[in-house]
């Protein structure tokens, strides 16, 4: 195990240093390297090459469960513990970084709120049955950029989104307009958000009323009532916006690509049996 670690990290650390830290002799390490590889070791070496390639293709954001599912999708079947062990030995760790953030939910006194009809039931039997929406922040050197997103709970697909410098009603209106134009939902769609002033505004409530939606809102201060959207925004922060962008233009381009190219069409989702949102919706149509 120690020799395997040393062999995997020879380009990063000197052999002398690793031997001292791990408490082994250099002569023993070099003798180990000269031995012919066992069939199992050769197989692990080949598998690690596939894992490294998959890790790069998947933007270095997948942990071992998704890497394994990616390889299965390519026609290879490996045990989850084996993949996890090799990734751990090779120090292949998914990106996960979180930053400071401003408050995004501000409820106005006397606002027109709605009951919590969703009631933490994030399942849906078909597309356009339940949508959830929320606002998050993006850190840039030019100041905060705000992102409003709408997710279809059936496939976890982001069906509408909008970015702006200000967190006003137009931000959520633009996200809704995109979602409605893309999906053309039938009446009685359940639309759930928090009680932020943008969502309780007359302008937004009137806009979604035109589609004859059922309106649902989280209880005050309860993030679990909108956990699916919270999860998406955490994924975006950990895999895309994990460090400050230099400009707002850079942030907008990067986030557009993350949502439309990666998340909706390629990223494997554990809730969807490791399919992308687009793949999951296509299987429904068939």
Mean pLDDT metric: 89
CATH-defined architecture of the largest domain: 2-Layer Sandwich
Give the helices and strands as they follow along the chain.
HHHHHHEEEHEHHEHHH
Q: Which percent range describes the beta-strand content?
A: 5-15%
End-to-end distance, in Å? 48 Å
Radius of gyration equals: 24 Å
Give the % helix.
40-55%
Supply the number of structural domains: 2
Q: Would you identify the CATH H-level superfamily of the largest domain?
A: Ribonuclease H-like superfamily/Ribonuclease H
Q: What is the CATH first-level class name of the largest domain?
A: Alpha Beta
Question: Poorly predicted ranges (pLDDT <50, ≥5 residues)?
Answer: none
What is the CATH third-level topology name of the largest domain? Answer: Nucleotidyltransferase, domain 5
Number of strands: 5
Strand order of the largest sheet: 3-2-1-4-5
Count of helical stretches: 12
Give the biggest beta sheet.
5 strands, mixed
List the helices and strands and how they pair.
Blueprint: H1 2-8, H2 15-22, H3 26-34, H4 39-57, H5 64-73, H6 80-89, E1 130-140, E2 143-152, E3 157-164, H7 169-183, E4 190-193, H8 197-200, H9 202-209, E5 214-217, H10 227-239, H11 248-263, H12 277-285
Helix pairs in contact: 4-5, 5-6, 7-9
Description:
The protein has 286 residues and is of the alpha/beta class. It folds into two domains: 2-89, no CATH class; 130-285, Nucleotidyltransferase, domain 5 (2-Layer Sandwich), CATH 3.30.420.10. Helices cover 45% and strands 13% of the residues. It is built from twelve helices and five strands. It has a five-stranded mixed sheet with strand order 3-2-1-4-5, with helices on both faces. A hairpin with a 4-residue loop joins strand 2 and strand 3 (157-164). It is elongated. The mean pLDDT is 89.
């Amino acid at each position: 195990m120690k020799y395997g670690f040393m062999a995997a990290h020879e380009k990063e650390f000197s052999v002398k240093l690793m031997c001292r830290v791990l408490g082994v002799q250099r002569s023993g390490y070099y003798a180990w390297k000269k031995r012919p590889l066992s069939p199992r070791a050769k197989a692990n070496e080949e598998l690690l090459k596939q894992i490294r390639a998959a890790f790069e293709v998947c933007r270095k954001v997948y942990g071992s469960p998704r890497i394994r599912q990616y390889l299965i999708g390519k026609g290879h079947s490996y045990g989850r513990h084996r993949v996890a062990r090799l990734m751990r030995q090779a120090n292949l760790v998914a990106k996960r970084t979180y930053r400071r953030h401003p408050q995004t939910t501000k409820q106005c006194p006397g606002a027109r709120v709605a009951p919590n009809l969703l009631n933490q039931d994030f399942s849906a039997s078909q597309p356009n049955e339940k949508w959830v929406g929320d606002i998050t922040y993006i850190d840039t050197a030019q100041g905060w950029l705000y992102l409003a997103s709408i997710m279809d709970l059936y496939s976890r697909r982001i069906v509408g989104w909008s970015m702006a410098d200000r967190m006003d009603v137009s931000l959520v209106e633009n996200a809704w307009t995109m979602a409605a134009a893309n999906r053309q939902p039938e009446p009685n769609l359940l639309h759930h958000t928090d009680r932020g002033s943008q969502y309780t505004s007359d302008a937004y409530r009137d806009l979604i009323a035109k589609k004859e939606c059922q309106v649902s809102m989280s209880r005050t201060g309860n993030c679990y009532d909108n956990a699916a959207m919270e999860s998406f925004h955490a994924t975006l922060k950990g895999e895309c916006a994990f460090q400050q962008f230099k400009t707002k233009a850079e942030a907008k381009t990067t986030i557009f690509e993350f949502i439309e190219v990666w998340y909706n069409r390629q990223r494997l989702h554990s809730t969807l049996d490791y399919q992308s949102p687009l793949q999951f919706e296509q299987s429904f149509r068939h």
